[in-house]
Amino acid sequence: MNCRIVDMRNKDVINVKDGTRLGYVSDVEVDTANACLVAIVIYGRPRLFGLLGREDDCIIDWCDIEVIGEDTILVNCTPKRCCHTRKSCFDTIFCGLTR
User: How far apart are CA 58 and CA 43, in angstroms?
Assistant: First the structure.
């Protein structure tokens, strides 16, 4: 089955370890030296309509993907391992006030 990156954006990502829905594919990481996909990225949900930034992003390594189906992508990863933090705009503005 061939799949374009645009088609991956419409697929639901589900963790098979605990059955949680992680979201939709928002971006991909590509190794330009080897011309291969390294990971898929799921952006965190917006906090307070995006005014307070977003929750942590979920970056899933390509080797953790079990199945890419018609509507879903099944992954096998631990929740702590797949999440990375993203700073909000308020973290950079208020960081001087809290120190």
Answer: 6
pTM for this prediction: 0.69
Question: Largest Cα–Cα distance in the chain?
Answer: 53
Report strand pairing: 12-15 vs 72-75: parallel
Q: What angle do CA 8, 62, 69 make, to 5 degrees?
A: 40
Residue pLDDT, tens place only, 27-47? 889 899 998 889 998 877 766
Give the residue extent of every domain in the chain. Answer: 5-98
The number of residues in the chain equals 99
Task: Classify domain 5-98 by CATH architecture.
Answer: Roll (2.30)
